[in-house]
Specification:
single chain; alpha/beta; Rossmann fold; two-stranded antiparallel sheet; 4 helices; globular
Length: about 170
């Protein structure tokens, strides 16, 4: 079975869909099935294997497991943008983001020590809804002078087709 088929079966068995809300907290973003995450990560990594990716970037917290799986497959480090800036991060790039699921704004921070001008970055996350997180990541990459080589998510709930995904909202209907 493909990653999309496995994921769709899992959503139907252990999740739910209510319009734009896709509940996957029993296997993706609260309790995590590591075998499923690695299958999804392998699928995304295969799509970007020839893009000379030097780093994976995601936003804290739900994208971290997927970022790790993709990074492992591509053999590159991953970075997660933090929602709170620790005192150990004196120099940073930052941009505002709005969470559709949590209905709140936050600022994402990435240390200048881990993101550089020569980086070719793949953004990964669990969902793509309105694009606020990707917009914030693009702003951070622009501040760093790094290059975005692509964006990939598990489920794309938007009409944008330039974001690689395992499933789209249409697949869930």
């Amino acid at each position: 079975m493909s990653a999309a088929e496995v994921l769709l079966e899992r959503i139907r068995r252990d999740g739910s869909i209510n319009g734009q809300i896709v509940k996957v907290d029993q296997f993706l973003n609260h309790m995590v099935d590591p075998v499923l995450i690695h299958l999804l990560g392998d699928d995304i990594a295969a799509s970007f294997a020839n893009h000379s990716v030097t780093k994976i970037l995601t936003a804290e917290t739900s994208g971290i497991m997927l970022a790790q799986a993709v990074a492992l497959k591509l053999q590159v480090p991953f970075v997660y943008a933090k929602k709170k800036r620790p005192i150990t991060m004196p120099e940073y790039f930052a941009a505002a983001s709005y969470s559709f699921t949590k209905q709140e704004s936050t600022t994402l921070y990435v240390s200048k020590e881990v993101l550089h001008r020569d980086d070719k970055v793949l953004f990964v996350d669990d969902f793509f809804a309105k694009g606020s997180t990707l917009k914030a990541i693009e702003e951070i990459l622009a501040q760093a002078g790094a290059t975005l080589v692509g964006a990939a998510v598990i489920i794309n709930k938007s009409d944008r087709r330039d974001v690689e995904s395992i499933l789209t909202l249409d697949d869930l209907q």
